[in-house]
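Example protein
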Amino acid sequence: MYQDFLFKSVTIAVLAVLVLFTGFALVGPLDLSIKAVTTQEDKLFSVNDSAKVLATPDTATVQVAVVKEAGSVEDLQTELNEANNAMTSAIKSVGIAEDDIKTVMYSIYPKYRYNPEDGTQSIDGYMATSRLEIRTSDFDKINQVVDVAVKAGANEVGQVNFVVDDRDAYVAQARKEAIEGAKAKAEAIADEAGIDLGQLVNVDIYENGEVQPPVFYEKALATGMGGGGDTSIQAGQNEIVVNVTLSYALQ
């Protein structure tokens, strides 16, 4: 019995081998090779340039504030509101519309006193700030605003900004000049290096924003702060800068 089983198993194995070799003979050997497919990316040549346009500001903003101290929140709020109303009225008196006066900060906060003996802190009065931002296209009024606000009680002046509201024309001019400069630079470098520029495939444009020259006061701000005389603030010109990067395919 065992011999019959062994004979049948050997016979089946032999037949399987014969079938396998017959298949190879009919269809040929199996292709076990690995084919690598590669793609070649276009090489890019990039060049950048920038252009700067000087723009005359058409709008000015300035911030004036009154800072007060008092022993209680109620007293401090009363003093702050009175000073804020006086400051606002004075600003309106030089021709600034109410819509061009905006409160950008109104805060009341405690002052703390440290006790070195027991390491504790306790409230030692309160401080408050009311800050207004004034906007105008009449630059002469900026000087007047500072003067009348200080006389009305403002003891902090800062954040004077001269900006260009209609910037689109200046940005377009700077962008055009930057693109033309980058194209000329790319052609010159390609000619010197002996390479052939292909199609322009990418353009990156970055605007640096608007840079204004620092603003200087020609006087201190108020009596008690070394003041006296009229304020003189000059606008100057702002810089609008555009950077451009052009990328070409190489032929």
